[in-house]
Amino acid sequence: MHAAAYTPNDYQMVPFLSDGTTRGCIRQLQMVRGRASNRTRSSQASSQSVNTSEGFDADPVNYEEALEQLPPDEKDLGERLRRHLQFFFLDPMEKWKVRRQFPFKLALQIFKIILVTSQLILFAEMRMSHVDFMEDTNTVMRHKFLKNWDDDRDAVQYPPSEGRYAVYDGKGIFEHLGFIITAYYSIQNESFASFSYDSHKFSIAHFMSRNASLNAGIKFDDIPPMQLCFDRIASVTVKNNTYEFDINNVYECSALNLTEAEVASIHEDPMRVEEAFKKRSITFNPEDALRISKMILKFSLRTIHFAPVTADQTPECYRINVSLIFDNSRHTGQVHVLIQTEINYEHVCNGRILKGSILPYDTVLMAVIDVLVLFMCLASLILCSRALIKAHLLKNKTVDFFEKVLQQPIMLSDRLEFVNLWYVMILVNDVCIIIGTVCKVTIEFRDFDNDIFTMTGILLGVGTLLVYVGVLRYFKFFNKYNILMLTLKKSLPNIMRFLSCAAVLYTGFLFAGWLIIGPYSMKFRTLSSCSEALFSLVNGDDMFATFYTIADSNTTIKVFGTIYIYIFVSLFIYVVLSLFIAIIMDAYEVVKDRYASDEHSFERSTLRDFMATAPAISLDAPNIQAQFAPSNLLNLVAGNDSNSVRALEAIDRMRDRIRDSLAGTRFESFANPIHDGQPATPGHDAFQLRNGSAGGPVFDP
């Protein structure tokens, strides 16, 4: 039972197959199995360089002889298992040659990548239009409501050419408040855009009778007042040059109900806002600077946006929630002025319903593509789930046979051979695309906000990325196109070990730079910006700016920062990065040598040794379809009532209903992508019953 069927020299003479799979190793072992009987014990002793896995003897077990010594029913089970494993490790094209079944999963992935790419392009155009609209609206709000804002501040510059927008005294605060109030109450008269107030006092009859537009004149009393909010501590008192603080936080808001006369006077002289605020007990004296942390002025506007990506430029109505923040949280005398906008879609603008006269063709196109993508991803999800379930059941059958019949354990590496990570990745991208498509449909029905837009973009982007990465799986079946995959597979373990050490070193530099240089350089001010600066230095970017941005106010920090950057750059560019590239190049050289050589060893395993004893597969043989007919393979669900079996049976029932619905149509031949119950093809001479077989017909080599 333990007689050697192959010698170490046999394994050394096996040529390297570019796909590196179990299937390739088995095929090469079958080519040399005839040489095993002529090997002598002396030749075995001279060839100890074979690459064997830990726990293996130098000689593999002769599983053919082991099967012959088993009872008929167990022998038949072993031969079926061996054939099933052979078929399991075939690639899609070889399975097509064996079963003559259309490669549905391959075709499905090709169609899916076309549809998903089309969906992504259409969504990206819609997303770009939406983001451009929001950025343009934010720019308009800054120019309309920030007193000294100019075009230079709109440009993103690094390092910034100007400091933060701020005011430094109470007079400056009142000047800005007067400017904001004037801009708000004249927004419809002085804006070229179609801004209107967020008021619900107008009916459709109002617009229809007066033939008014959204920019029509509105009575002052109908304009909604702004909201004025304060974030402050409870109280600050001064007694005998001693401060008493009640530091309980208080947040309060009230409507800023200004009269028409007050607004008119503020329009003539913005400083008159101080008088209006004093009437309402609102002051900005020096003692108030300790009490007030933030003052927020809130109001809402509505506007019309025409989507340029659509054929008919359908008008869309949006509500803009504007918050002007005077930030005094640091209490340094510098009050930062910020503006925040939140833009939401509205179905109705002041009572006027906006809708196109016809449904644009691009909306119909996007809807059709979304439906097709959903069906494609659901079908892909079902097929890949079924393949993973069947692989799991086959693994359990294999483990049971080896441990209970052959009394031999199956190692973890052999068990992992049944887990197809490509299918797992396809499942992940299918789930991402399905969820992203559902979110996209809600966006197209205008039930959305910025968070849904962002989540949809992330899900569709990640899903599409994984779809394209999954295509690389099919390149590994071609020797000259899979160099990238082989190099990554060979170098990945060493890369992960190397990066674990480099990450510890990088983290040390990260915290040291953040703590020491952070207060004196804007590039190291936060932990995330510090990490971004260091990663840029690793790639040789922005070195001089990093030196330059360290403040000269502290000579010690300036000198330390310079030495710190010198050491980091020298270590990570000249040592760490060079070693990282060397690891990848070493893996590439190994792969290239295997391409150039015909004789290379490979790792042995119990699973490979077992399949190597099977008859070699000839894809051109006339009886190949009968040899691997479902009736000659294992019944994976027999005697099993696990959750995996129940899930597989549910998928098969769905398959059967689809097959029955397509019976008698031109698509009937495509209705059986996952059918395992078709009978073996009769009429082949080499297919016969073995005497004493208890498990049904078995292919006799």
Automatic annotation (TrEMBL):
Region (Disordered): 33-57
Keyword Nucleotide-binding: no
Cellular localisation: Cell membrane; Endosome membrane
Record-annotated membrane-spanning stretches: 102-124, 364-389, 421-443, 455-475, 495-517, 563-585
Low complexity compositional bias, start-end: 37-53
Membrane topology: Multi-pass membrane protein
Any one cellular-component term (Gene Ontology): lysosomal membrane
Chief localization: membrane
UniProt keyword Ion transport present: yes
Stretches assigned to the Polycystin cation channel PKD1/PKD2 domain: 440-591
One Pfam entry name: MCLN_ECD
Catalytic activities: Ca(2+)(in) = Ca(2+)(out)
Keywords carried by this UniProt record: Cell membrane, Disulfide bond, Endosome, Ion channel, Ion transport, Membrane, Transmembrane, Transmembrane helix, Transport
Residue intervals of the Mucolipin extracytosolic domain: 131-346
Source species, domain of life: Eukaryota
GO-annotated molecular function: NAADP-sensitive calcium-release channel activity
Identification of the protein by name: Uncharacterized protein
Annotated organism of origin: Mesorhabditis spiculigera
